[in-house]
Amino acid sequence: MKKIINNFIKDVKVELDDEFDLNFDIESNGLIAAVYPAFWCVGQLFTGKMFNHFSKKKMIFWGKFLQGFAILFFPFTSAFLFLLIISALLGLGTALAYPTFLITIAQVKSPKQRAESITAAIFLIAAITITSAL
């Protein structure tokens, strides 16, 4: 399910690029597409430590807020620098929200219930993401 969400976000970027006729070359498109997972991966190195010091609810809230902010403002800019910043914010939001969410489920549920709970939660996140994008 996580792969579906990632592919959906990438597809939205490609569709918006076609829709708004941004006319970036392939290197620029590749850089914009690479910034998101790079910030996501590097950001996760810090969210594990942050989880021990900050509120889980606030981390998930601010992570989802950053994701929503980035997705909301993506169609309103065509400047390369702003698109890079928006992709970075999307990656940081994802790095804040998803690992914290998974750790929270792991702390609350027993090992036998974790897989089912995580699957249901990711399905709900995917459904909400797809519904809000429509």
Verbal overview:
Helix 1 packs parallel to helix 5 (111-133). This protein is an all-alpha fold. The model has no long low-confidence stretch (mean pLDDT 79). 86% of the residues lie in helices and 0% in strands. The chain has one domain. The chain has 5 helices and no strands.
- Number of E-type strands: 0
Number of domains: 1
Which band does the percent of strand residues land in? under 5%
**Rounded Rg:** 16 Å
What is the overall pLDDT average? 79
Structural class: mainly alpha
Low-confidence stretches: none
H-E string: HHHHH
**Shape annotation:** elongated
N-to-C span: 18 Å
> Helix coverage percent of residues?
over 70%
Q: How are the secondary structure elements laid out?
A:
Blueprint: H1 2-20, H2 26-51, H3 56-73, H4 80-108, H5 111-133
Helix pairs in contact: 1-5, 2-4, 3-4
In short:
With 134 residues, the chain is mainly α.
Provide tags for this entry.
134 residues, mainly alpha, elongated
